[in-house]
Specification:
single chain, 29% helix, 122 residues, five-stranded antiparallel beta sheet, 5 strands
């Protein structure tokens, strides 16, 4: 029997991970400033100039509410300035959120999935 569909009401919010390299950090800062100006309710996370968690490339995270998805994601589509961006829901299953339920702007980058597997619910 097929598995039931997941209710999108289980999404508690979203994260966007904006990836950068040393030579593109000023571009990433400009994008970050633009997000902050256009979406004051978004939470701009710390700069990580090295791999952290499942992320194998320098990045910062942007956390935002469900109701901001329809404006923030199109803003990123038009303004990510050539940077790679992972957008994913927050459902409580980080592995599925970062893999099967994610979308990418730019290139799809490798993730350290072992980190996510260790923290799966159940």
């Amino acid at each position: 029997m097929a598995e039931p569909f997941t209710d999108p009401g289980e999404i508690k919010g979203y994260h966007a991970h904006v990836y950068y390299a040393a030579q593109t950090k000023t571009v990433a800062a400009r994008v970050r400033d633009g997000i902050g100006a256009a979406f004051p309710a978004a939470i701009l996370g710390s700069w990580h100039d090295e791999a952290v968690g499942p992320h194998t490339v320098s990045m910062y995270q942007v956390a935002f509410a469900v109701e901001d998805f329809s404006r923030l994601v199109p803003w990123l589509m038009l303004n990510h300035a050539g940077l790679d961006v992972l957008v994913h829901p927050s459902t409580g299953d980080s592995y599925e959120d970062h893999t099967a339920n994610a979308l990418w702007l730019g290139e799809k980058l490798p993730l350290n999935l072992d980190v996510l597997r260790r923290h799966r619910p159940g």
